[in-house]
Specification:
alpha/beta, five-stranded mixed β-sheet
């Protein structure tokens, strides 16, 4: 793009000033890193929630133990880290963490990521599938609520968890698409299912794993982030509506919701670190 993030059902918050204009550290509200990590672990059920090995959910990089400003971002990366540090963030919640590539030498861009965090005293906490599946602050339920729908049951198994959500639907397909086009910068719809779907399934980010489970779940409409090309023929053959709203754009909600909740509990400021990802 450039663009702003998609609309959210979270309360609006004022845009804070630059790091240079913030109060001196000794005058800022403060919480301990341990307190924030403990709360996030419990809220997301991190210890018991089985994710992909590369997710490494939880605290991935520590700081000096004090937190004065919370940030939220979809991805770990040099650009969001530098922006977070510039804004005075010292606890950054991300959906896609640092270790998806496995063990790597701390050289080149990998070194740059960690160096930016250490120099800026910025901790990183990652939560992947727990923030897709969560019944209150998960990406999938929050997308449904944007549309005025109430998720009732889950689908899409992963290990011992269910990741996606399904909601009864009261809108025509055309109305759903029109609303999504208001909320998201780029919407691609494959419309081979019912023009008046009774149920809508939600799977933020990649929906490739969700499509094969739709028919068995009794659903013909999926709202997701992105899909592989092969699902077009599958949608025709199985009479499905597949609506893609962007991987990044559909996964801003969970990190925002967790950051907002954390900020309210510990009386700290927070903000979303936008990275203009068009994918």
């Amino acid at each position: 793009m450039p663009r702003t993030g998609p609309s959210s059902n979270l309360p609006a918050h004022p845009t804070p000033g630059l790091h240079a204009s913030q109060p001196p550290p000794n005058l800022r509200p403060m919480a301990s890193l341990h307190q924030l990590v403990e709360y996030c672990d419990k809220r997301t059920r991190r210890p018991s929630f089985k994710d992909y090995p590369g997710a490494v959910n939880g605290l991935q990089v520590a700081n000096d133990g004090r937190v004065t400003r919370i940030g939220a971002a979809v991805d770990a990366g040099l650009a969001p880290f530098e922006r977070a540090v510039e804004r005075g963030v010292d606890f950054l919640i991300v959906h896609h963490g640092l270790f998806w590539g496995g063990v790597q030498p701390l050289t080149g861009p990998v070194y740059g990521r960690f160096a930016a965090l250490v120099r800026g005293n910025c901790a990183v906490y990652s939560s992947h599938l727990p923030l897709d599946a969560h019944e209150d602050i998960g990406n999938n339920v929050l997308i449904a609520r944007q549309l005025g729908l109430k998720p009732r049951r889950q689908f899409l198994p992963h290990e011992n968890e269910l990741i996606g959500w399904i909601a009864p639907n009261k809108y025509k397909r055309a109305q759903l698409c029109a609303r999504l086009e208001e909320l998201y910068p780029r919407v691609v719809s494959i419309e081979c299912g019912s023009p008046t779907p009774k149920l809508v399934a939600f799977c933020s980010g990649s929906g490739n794993g969700a499509v094969p489970h739709l028919v068995a779940a009794g659903v013909d409409t999926l709202i997701t982030g992105e899909l592989r090309e092969e699902w077009f023929n599958y949608a025709q053959e199985h009479r499905l509506n597949l609506i893609c709203c962007g991987h990044y754009a559909t996964e801003v909600h969970g990190v925002k919701a967790l950051a907002a909740e954390l900020a309210k509990k510990f009386r700290l400021p927070w903000e979303f670190i936008e990275t203009e990802n068009p994918l």
